[in-house]
Amino acid sequence: MKRLLIAAGGGGDAITAAMVHAALYGADSPALVLTYAWERLVVDPVPGPRSVRDFTGIDRVAPEVDLITPATTPRSPAGSLLPRLSGELGPRLGLLDPYDGVAGLARRIRAAARWCATDRVDLVDVGGDIVARGDEPTLRSPLGDALAVAACAEAGLATTVYIAGPGLDNEVPLPELLPRIGPADFALRADHSSVVDRVFDWHPSEASALLVAAARGIRGVCGTRDAPRPIPLDDAAGGVHRLSLERVLALNPLARRLAGTTTLAEAEAASRAVCGFSEIARERRRATGSLAGPDGHASGPDDQDVDSVWARFAAWEHDTLAEGIAYVTTRRILEELALTGDRAHALLDTLRAAPRTRSAAPLWRLAGT
Question: What ranges make up the beta strands (E) of the chain?
Answer without folding.
Answer: 3-7, 31-36, 55-56, 59-62, 65-68, 73-74, 92-96, 120-126, 158-164, 186-187, 220-223, 231-233, 239-244, 327-328, 359-360, 363-365
